[in-house]
Amino acid sequence: MSERLRAACVQLRSSDDPAENLATASAFISEAAAKGAQFVATPENTCLMAPDGGAKLEKTYPAESDPAIPALAALAEELSIHLLIGSLAIRVSADKTANRSYLFDPKGRIAALYDKVHLFDVDLPSGETYRESRTVAPGSQLQLADVPPFKVGLTVCYDVRFPQLYRALAQRGATLLTVPAAFTQTTGQAHWHVLLRARAIENGAYVLAPAQGGMHANGRATYGHSLIIGPWGEILAEGGTEPGVILADLDLAAVTAARARVPSLRHDRPFEG
Fold first, then answer.
1. Residues near 201 by Cβ (< 8 Å), separated by ≥ 6?
2. What is the pTM (predicted TM-score) of this model?
3. Which residues neighbour 96 within 8 Å (Cβ) at sequence distance 6 or greater?
């Protein structure tokens, strides 16, 4: 089996029109596959960037009736790719959604689901306020999946600020970490690159981080700069602020080499206090 994988990040500027977003994402996914990508990842909030939690709830569905899921499954099968949809808003109760990643295999089957664990509740110095927990139910489970030759650890956006999550994934065998995001312009400028490179370096793993970018119809500005990062912390591909596709060839041997040079995963020790 080959130790190499061509991976792609799709960068989007999603609106509050799910049908339009699905069509746009599908076109970029197809473009990535045409360029040889075997694993394609889209950002957080792929099909819906609503102006507020109430507007989001009005346009969401339970998993069994969400029209995007069968459409994306069919696309993965048509293109014969592994397809990670960074997140969809899936209604789980009358007033809450899950911020859920979907990984489809090349047969169009759901290979893994991950509900975002850490929710973004913050007041920024710029005056921006976010209360994701008002309308989102947090997940509680780690999720790994096979995208040969890699074992993939799934996370979403704000999770990137919690290194213990990535350590746990790496200790369980993850060699590729996914961080689909809709980072704010303010926090992205300050922290996006350094956080993602740190997660790659400290775990000797590839990081795939597809992002939302630009000024959205709801007035929110996201940072963009989708990244593919190598296990030594090197940036292999980077987007700007416009929608589009970036690609890189990943080699499992680079993970082995990085972990041999700095074998910190073998040096973890329990501690008290």
1. 231, 232, 233
2. 0.95
3. 135, 136, 137
Of these residues, 44, 47, 132, 151, which one is catalytic? 44
Annotated active-site residue 116? The verdict is yes
Domain boundaries, the chain: 4-264
CA dist list (Å): 28 to 25, 46, 120, 219: 5, 12, 28, 23
Q: What amino acid is encoded at 73 in this protein?
A: A
Residues 43-65 have a mean pLDDT of 87
Whether 227 contacts 10, CB under 8 Å: no
Please, what sign has the CA dihedral across residues 55, 128, 156, 176? positive
Residue in 56, 116, 132, 151 annotated catalytic: 116
Q: What are the Cα distances from residue 110, in Å, to 40, 102, 113, 226?
A: 14, 7, 7, 24
3-state secondary structure 26-59: HHHHHHHHHCCCCEEECCCCCCCCCCCHHHHHHC
Q: Residues 47, 132, 151, 157: which is the catalytic one?
A: 157
For 181, which DSSP code?
A: B
- Active-site residue, 58 included: no
Residue 96 annotated among the catalytic residues of the structure = no
User: For the chain, what is the largest distance between any 2 Cα atoms, rounded to a whole number of angstroms?
Assistant: 53
Using alpha carbons only, give the angle 255, 11, 162 rounded to the nearest 5 degrees: 50
Tell the CATH topology of 4-264: Nitrilase/N-carbamoyl-D-aminoacid amidohydrolase (3.60.110)
Say if CB 118 and CB 138 are below 8 A apart.
yes
- pLDDT tens-digit map of 81-140: 999 999 999 999 999 999 999 999 999 999 999 999 999 888 877 777 778 888 899 999
